[in-house]
Design a protein that fits this description.
Blueprint (H helix, E strand, L loop, with lengths): L1 H8 L19 E8 L2 E9 L5 E7 L1 H4 L1 H15 L7 H12 L17 E6 L5 E7 L1
Antiparallel strand pairs: 1-2, 2-3, 4-5
Helix pairs in contact: 3-4
Length: 135
């Protein structure tokens, strides 16, 4: 095997300019958009004259879906909340509705099959009526 590698490394055709391409910076800034199973990914990059990354900004699908996720959680709360008690059934439904949007791993930790939740119920004045935290 090493003999074959040596033979390939010494083959002049491998370094032929018609085989090997050298890329240079042709634009210092680029913006792109990719549709993925989770949703749309927007990305924006800037590089220096050597092609080294200087700045990057990405909006992942979870960020795009944030409003819809919040509306879905509100619908679950409106349907399952009675009084000021936060039930396990409601927490399970909230977890299910969030997972339906397939959030990225940094937004949805799947450790030990659970997603950490912190649900706080407040009245219209901002007073905490009930709070349940599940790790």
């Amino acid at each position: 095997m090493i003999e074959l590698e040596e033979q390939l490394l010494n083959d002049p055709e491998i370094l032929d300019p018609h085989i090997r391409a050298h890329a240079d910076v042709n634009e210092y800034e680029g913006i792109g958009c990719v549709e993925a199973p989770r949703g749309t990914l927007f990305h924006h990059y800037r590089v220096d004259k050597h092609g080294l990354m200087q700045w990057a900004n990405m909006i992942v699908a979870t960020g795009n879906n944030s409003l819809a996720i919040n509306k879905s959680v509100l619908q679950v709360a409106q349907h399952y909340m009675q009084g000021s008690e936060i039930t396990e059934a409601m927490m399970n439904r909230v977890e299910s509705v969030i997972r339906a949007y397939d959030p990225c791993l940094s937004c949805s930790t799947h450790a030990l099959g659970q997603m950490p939740l912190d649900i706080t119920l407040m009245d219209c004045r901002g007073n905490v009526l009930s709070r349940v935290i599940r790790d």
